[in-house]
Structure formats: C-alpha cells, structure tokens
C-alpha cells in the first residue's frame, strides 16, 4: 500500500504553494501577460509591517488548467509607507508604489519619494520576465531639492544594454545633458541594488 501511495504521489503534478495573503494588506495589483503566452498573469504588492519594505508577489497563469500559479515573491525592494487598516487614526496613505502594464509585457514599478525633507528622489523600475525569473530591465529616477533653486537631476537607462541618458540642472538654470554608457547586465529583481542604477547614472 505504501508503495502504491508513493507511486501515486510521484505521478501527481507538483503544485507550488503561495504564502497566505491578507487581502486588506494588498496595496495594489496588476494584470498583464508577463511571459508572453497569451494568458493573463498577475502581480501584487503586499504590505508587511509599517515602515518595512513591502513584498511583491508574482503569478503566472497555467493555460492548460486555467489557474494562477505562484511565480515568486520578491522582498525588500519595495519602499513606501502605507497607513494600513490596522493603524487606527490614519486616514490616507503617505507614499504608495504604483504598477503599470506596458505594451511589451513588462511591468513599470514607480516608487515615489517619501515625504520627508526637501530632497526627494522618485524611482522607476521596468521589470521583465526572462528565463523563468523577473529581472530589472530598466532604471530611472528624478531628483529635486524643493528648498534650493536649480537643484535637480534625472536619468533613464536600459539595464540590459547599459545605454541611456541623464541630465542635471546647472546653477544658472540651464540643463546639462549626458549619455549613459555602461556595461549591460542581467540582474534578478530579487538581487537588485539601487546603487547599481545610480552608479550607472554617474551619481
């Protein structure tokens, strides 16, 4: 009997289990076709603890059985501050990340600056699904000091090719433009380091 049960277990399809998610902790969600198979996939950003980085949950649709299967959880990459359901006295969110599905199947992840101090840096990552993992295909930022005149800069570059452009305001109010040209890299989203992007942009 044990041999029979073992054999049946070996024949059963492997099922990837996702972590339980409290629905009230879902900050935002987005559907699109991340792997290009024509089926609708899903990504969600989920709150963890107040002031802690949020988690990003990826799901890919199994076309044969028509269900969403977990495709990974990325932690410690999503900054923001959400005044959650379990924090009485708060009525609005401070800073929430935003998701946008792009026509080519990539995901635009916008991380607005925290509303602290005068120096604010907004970041945008472009995420793509390649060879079974989600990678960072693009990085962009815009920086402003709201208490200083003409203190601002921005950059937008393709991580895969290493090519892009940047600009910086001069003291006289004019803008200096530069070309970004570094070594192209394939970096898993889970292993992304923000300093990689700023370094490529010359910061």
Q: Could you characterize what this model shows?
A:
With 203 residues, the chain is mainly beta. It folds into two domains: 25-95; 117-203, no CATH class. The protein is 8% helix and 44% strand. It has helices at residues 2-11, 194-200, and strands at 26-32, 41-46, 54-62, 67-78, 98-101, 107-111, 119-130, 133-145, 152-158, 163-169, 175-181. The strands form two sheets. The protein has a seven-stranded antiparallel sheet, with helices on one face. The termini are far apart. Mean pLDDT is 85; it is low at 1-16.
Strand tally is: 11
Run of helices and strands: HEEEEEEEEEEEH
Total domain count: 2
As an assembly, this protein is: single chain
Task: Please summarize what this structure is.
The protein has 203 residues and is mostly beta strands. It contains two helices and eleven strands, in the order αβββββββββββα.
């Amino acid at each position: 009997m044990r041999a029979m049960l073992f054999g049946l277990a070996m024949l059963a399809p492997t099922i990837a289990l996702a972590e339980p998610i409290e629905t009230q902790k879902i900050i935002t969600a987005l559907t699109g076709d991340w792997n290009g198979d024509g089926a609708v996939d899903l990504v969600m950003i989920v709150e963890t603890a107040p002031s802690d980085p949020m988690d990003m949950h990826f799901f890919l649709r199994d076309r044969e059985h028509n269900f969403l299967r977990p495709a990974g959880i990325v932690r410690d990459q999503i900054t923001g501050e959400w005044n959650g359901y379990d924090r009485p006295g708060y009525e609005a969110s401070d800073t929430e990340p935003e998701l946008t599905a792009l026509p080519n199947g990539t995901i635009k992840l916008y991380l607005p600056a925290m509303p602290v101090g005068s120096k604010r840096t907004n970041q945008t990552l472009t995420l793509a699904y390649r060879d079974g993992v989600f990678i960072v295909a693009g990085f962009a930022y815009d920086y402003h000091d709201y208490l200083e005149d003409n203190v601002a800069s921005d950059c937008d570059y393709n991580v895969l090719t290493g090519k892009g452009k940047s600009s910086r305001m001069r003291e006289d109010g004019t803008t200096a433009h530069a070309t970004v040209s570094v070594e192209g890299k394939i970096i898993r989203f889970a292993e992304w380091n923000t300093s990689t992007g700023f370094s490529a942009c010359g910061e």
